Every structure is written in C-alpha cells, then in structure tokens.
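Q: My labmate handed me this sequence with no annotations at all. I'd like to see what the chain might look like in three dimensions before we decide whether it's worth expressing. Could you predict it?
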Amino acid sequence: MRVGWLERGIARVSSGVRWSAQVSRRRPRLAATLSQGRHVDRSAHEAQWLRDVRNAVLHLHEQLLEWERRGHERLHGRLSANEALQVLLHDPRFAWLRPLSELVVHIDELLAGRPQQPSPDADAILVQARALAAPDAEGTFYARRYLQAIQESPDAVLAHRDLLHLLGREARRF
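A: Here is what I predict for the chain of 174 residues:
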C-alpha cells in the first residue's frame, strides 16, 4: 500500500522526535517551538510581530517628525500642509528621519510579499529597529538627534518606550 504525502506528514507529526529533527535542520526556531509542545505557525506569528513593529516604528516616526516640525516652525514660522511636505522631502534638517521611513517601507514590502533584493527577514528587521532605537551622544548624527528628540519630547519618549518594550518582548520569543 502506498502512503501519500499527507499520511507521511501526519506520521512525522505524531512521531515527535523525528519531526523535530527534520524541522531543526531547516528552521531551528520553529523546531524549538514545536519541541516545547506549542504548535504555532511561525509565519503568522512573524507577520503579526512585523505589523506590531511597523506600527510602533511609524508612531515613533510621527512623534519625531512632529518634534522636528515644531523646531522648524520656531525658526521659520508656521507651515501649511503643502509647505510641510516640501520641507520634509527636501530640507536636510529632516533627512535624519529617513532611516525610520525606510524601515517602515521594508516591513511593508516584506508583509506584502514583495521583498527588496536581498530580502530582509524578521531577524534583520529586529536588528535594524534596535539600532534605530538606540540614542547615543557620541554616535552618528541620527543617534545624536534621536537622543535630543527623546530628551525634549515626552511623546517621543513614550513612543520610544513602546518600541523598546515590543522589541525586548519579541526577542525573547524568537
């Protein structure tokens, strides 16, 4: 009697150890999850995590953008919506925010199934988000400006805290 692919899959799942060994060669984290008895679809978990990170980074970006806009308006006067867009796109003062924008775009592309070349995975997103959420007085221009923003803007501090909480909690799960 021939055994089909579905029956072989069921036999692998029921055998436990054999299935875990096969998965661990291909996807070590999934194997760890399966060996702990929690049958979780990693791709669904990663997609939800990516959406959560995207929303947290986007919220942080909005708060930093608002902080930078207020500083610009103190120097140059109030901006209309169109002027604000032009300043955002062309003024070097706002250029330091582009890495956050690019991270949101990378996550959107990954979630939409149109990854860039080469495609970043969830681990790379985690590393990039952590790097962008690291203020440093002696670091890059971005890190120094980020430090200044979270020192001056309570809303930016709260968004920063939320992102760090999400990154720390999810890093323990992976």
